[in-house]
Structure formats: C-alpha cells, structure tokens
Design goal:
With 85 residues, the chain is mainly α. It has helices at 3-61, 64-84. The chain is rod-shaped.
Length: 85
C-alpha cells in the first residue's frame, strides 16, 4: 500500500470515529428530549382533563333548569318586596 493510501485510511478512520462520538452524543440528547416531551404531554393531558371537568361543571350551572330556578327565586323576592311596600 502506498503512503498516500495509508494517510487516506488514517484520515477516514479518524473522521468516522468523530462521527461515531457525535452520533452517540446526539442519541443521548434525543433520549433526554423524548423523556421531556413525554413529561410535557402528561402535564398537558392532565390540564386538558381538568379543563374538561371545569367546562362540564359550568355547563351544569348554566343549564336551562338552573336558569329557570334562579329567575323564579328572583321573581319571588321581587314580589315579596312589592307586597310589603
């Protein structure tokens, strides 16, 4: 083998070793990133569930029966005040 070919093999092996190390480091960062994304997704899911339960509670409060009952109470209060005066 000529000396030029040996130099090219050495350079190529060094470059491949550097790429291997960089690839391993990137893989570690990707694993950490995916774990963080899972934590964020779990938090977002919990928040969505809480918002959903809040919306359903508000929907129960604003149901027509509740509004009718509330209006009926105010009418009764108003008629009691007018009878006194």
């Amino acid at each position: 083998m000529s000396s030029a070919a040996e130099i090219l093999v050495i350079i190529l092996s060094i470059v491949l070793a550097i790429f291997l190390v960089v690839g391993i480091i990137l893989l570690i960062y990707l694993i950490r990133l995916s774990a963080e994304i899972r934590r964020i997704a779990a938090t977002a899911q919990k928040t969505i569930d809480d918002v959903g339960s809040t919306v359903s509670s508000i929907a129960k409060l604003t149901s027509p029966m509740f509004v009718a009952d509330l209006v009926g109470k105010y009418i009764k209060k108003f008629t009691k005040k007018t009878k006194r005066g």
